[in-house]
Design brief:
8 helices, 19% strand, alpha+beta, three-stranded antiparallel β-sheet, 294 residues
């Protein structure tokens, strides 16, 4: 009796019946997806595969919903074909940013721009990529009012279309290191040769562990790109002006440890300057006031 009533209602109100069927099947697919992800969570929670698994499961679910929608409501959409064709140009223009962002999503996935976990600069926004969506890439922002490469706490969503209109800077793609420099102003009476030797010694003590890994990654870079040899070992350069001698230390540092290493280097250098028996004297800008002769 109930089945006959349902069949009669479906024949009488076919659109309402199709909507109910679509909602029920969509609910079943959602429950199945969550059950499968819950069973896989314990094995994948501590690996990068968990993020990929969640995204793939969501895409598959959405694709199945789209196919189901077309299958159930396809016959009801035939009447709109002409209207959709006439409105196509207007819709394309109105959604041009969405379409370009969607194309940018494909370019990011298959163009080797960046992956989740990479540190990037997209347009004027710098941060770590925490999610790559169909239309927007989500970053954990850094810098701005915070000095150094540290998080501000803000989540920033950047349109994927930006990869076509602005440079994409990736700090961790193929080489996990950056070159950094610190500058020490010394008085002209300082022992510059001693300063050079001291800076090289300090850099070797603080960042000497990077040498083997950076050499390995740079060798891989040379196999992939046409780049020249670069010095990965610390270097010291000297220059001067009217005020002081500037001694600059150039060194390799892990991308995510730049501020920490700078802090350790500066603290160690200050200790060595204090223990140098006045061989090294920090300089500061001085202004000489000359009275005018009337």
């Amino acid at each position: 009796m109930m089945l006959d009533w349902l069949a009669t209602a479906a024949d009488t109100y076919p659109l309402a019946a199709n909507i109910i069927i679509f909602i029920l099947v969509a609910g079943v697919l959602l429950v199945i997806r969550r059950l499968l992800l819950n069973r896989m969570y314990s094995r994948l929670q501590n690996t990068s595969n968990w993020y990929v698994t969640r995204k793939v499961a969501k895409w598959i679910n959405n694709l199945m919903l789209a196919i189901l929608f077309l299958y159930i409501f396809g016959s009801n959409l035939t009447g709109f074909t002409t209207a959709i064709g006439l409105a196509g140009a207007g819709v394309t223009y109105a959604l041009r940013e969405v379409i370009v962002s969607f194309a940018g999503w494909f370019a990011i996935l298959f163009g080797d721009f960046f992956n989740t976990g990479d540190r990037v600069l997209l347009g004027s926004t710098k941060g770590d990529v925490i999610d790559i969506g169909v239309l927007r890439t989500t970053l954990m922002e850094m810098e701005e009012w915070v000095d150094g490469d540290q998080y501000t706490g803000r989540i920033v969503r950047v349109a994927n279309s930006s990869i076509f209109t602005a440079p994409v800077y990736n700090y961790t793609a193929d080489f996990q290191f950056l070159w950094d420099e610190i500058h020490i102003p010394l008085r002209f009476s300082s022992d510059i040769d001693y300063a050079r030797a001291m800076l090289l010694e300090v850099s070797d003590d603080v960042i000497g562990t990077y040498h083997e890994q950076s050499d390995r990654e740079w060798t891989e870079m040379k196999r992939r790109y046409r780049i020249e040899n670069a010095s990965l070992k610390p270097q010291v350069f000297v220059s001067f002006d009217d005020n002081w001698v500037k001694v600059s230390l150039r060194y390799i540092v892990g991308t995510r440890e730049r501020r920490k290493i700078r802090d350790e280097l500066f603290r160690t250098i200050l200790k060595r300057i204090k223990a140098s028996d006045n061989k090294l004297q920090l300089a500061s800008e001085t202004i000489e006031i000359v009275p005018s002769e009337d």
